[in-house]
Amino acid sequence: MPLSLCPVSLVDVLVDGQPCDCEAPACRVGDPISLEVRLTNRSPRSVGPFALTVVPFQDHQNGVHNYDLHDAISFVGSSTFYLDAVQPSGQAACLGALLFLYTGDFFLHVRFHEDRSSKELPQSWFCLPSVRVRALQAQA
To answer: Which residues lie below 8 Å from residue 85, measured CB to CB, with a gap of 6+?
Structure first.
């Protein structure tokens, strides 16, 4: 069986309008920030529909990840977004918002789930490395 690349690629992840490609974006505690994930279909067939879930965590630098952040991060709306099928060479975007309640370095896993029984893509997979966000003390 030949190896094939996943036909879906992430074009960009933006936090508060800034690309998350090098430096961790910073935000102020208590100020909502926007999150945008753009998806491009590079296959000759339509893919999806998809559910996109954002999973926040803290890395304690000792191999332990803390996913119990209900008191530290709040989603404005939902942490799961739905996309219809994406046509060949087409793009789609998910827009959401987060509110950090405490200072610290946080990470966001962005996970896609395909909502149909196609065998072309795995049922669930992580599409990109975790996105790091720094929550800083609000100015008085």
So the answer is: 46, 47, 48, 49
Determine if the pTM surpasses 0.70. Answer: yes
Among 56, 7, 11, residue whose Cα is nearest residue 37: 11
The 10s digit of each residue's pLDDT in 58-105 is: 987 787 888 899 889 999 988 988 888 888 888 888 899 999 999 999
CB atoms within 10 A of CB 135: 23
Cβ atoms of 130 and 23 closer than 8 Å: no
Please, are residues 110 and 52 in contact by the beta-carbon 8 Å criterion? yes
Residue length of the chain: 140
Structure tokens at 99: 């509110």
**Rounded distance, CA 15 to CA 19, Å?**
7
